[in-house]
Structures are given as structure tokens and as C-alpha cells.
Amino acid sequence: MIDYEGIHHVSLVIRDLERSKAFYTEVLGLKELERPPFDFEGAWFAVAEGGQQLHLIVHQGQTLRDGKIDSRDGHLALRVSSYEGTRKWLEEKGIHCDARPHAKAGFPQIYILDPDCNIIELNAAVYDG
């Protein structure tokens, strides 16, 4: 049996490093971490406390997404403390979102796309709107 301690990191493929770094720091508010000197471009970010990380990897290959939000496609889900505060922040930043305050999942969800059409779910424990 495997004894898990948690998720260390999730990696997403991106095409434009500077554009993506701006999105993940300025829109999502993640803190960039120091990254080893790999022979390919990328960036690492801290996600909350506890050592969880998001790694961005520059790769020019194809993706399966066409710019539409499909919550059944592969995605990164991050828990936020305030659903309504997050929704308002995204609105202020001009980010299109698929807001689901009363989602069938049993907790409120917001889906957005990053600049490379990676799907990000932002969810909260309760609806606070």
C-alpha cells in the first residue's frame, strides 16, 4: 500500500512563459518560486501553505483544447476561501468565467482558462454570495 502525504505539484504546458507568469501572479496571485536550471523554460509557483506547487513547462506541442471551458476535460482545481470574492476579482480582471454557485458537485465552482487554454477550477467550501 502507498502512504500518500499530499500532492507535491501539478504541471501544465504553456507556450509563452512571460504571458503565463503574469497571469499566474497577477490574476491568480500565486508566488513564484526559485526553479532549478533545467534545459527548458518554465516556472514554479507555491500554492497555499504546505509545499504544494504548480509547475509551468514551455512546450510548443498541440493541446486538446480549443478555447472553450469544458469541466469534464483535464483541469487543475484550487480551493479558495471566498467564492464571491474570487468571482468579483476575476470580473475586475476581465477574466471570462463559468460560475457555478450551486454546482452539482456540492460546492460552488468557477471555471476559467489560462492564456494557453488550460482549464482551472476555483472552488470554495460554501457559497458566500
Automatic annotation (TrEMBL):
The keyword Cell cycle does not apply. Keywords: Metal-binding. Signal peptide: none annotated. Residues 6-125 form the VOC domain. SUPFAM superfamilies: Glyoxalase/Bleomycin resistance protein/Dihydroxybiphenyl dioxygenase (SSF54593). The keyword Transport does not apply. InterPro entries: Glyas_Bleomycin-R_OHBP_Dase, Glyas_Fos-R_dOase_dom, Glyoxalase_1_CS, VOC_core. This is VOC family protein. It comes from Paenibacillus baimaensis. The lineage of its organism: Bacteria, Bacillati, Bacillota, Bacilli, Bacillales.
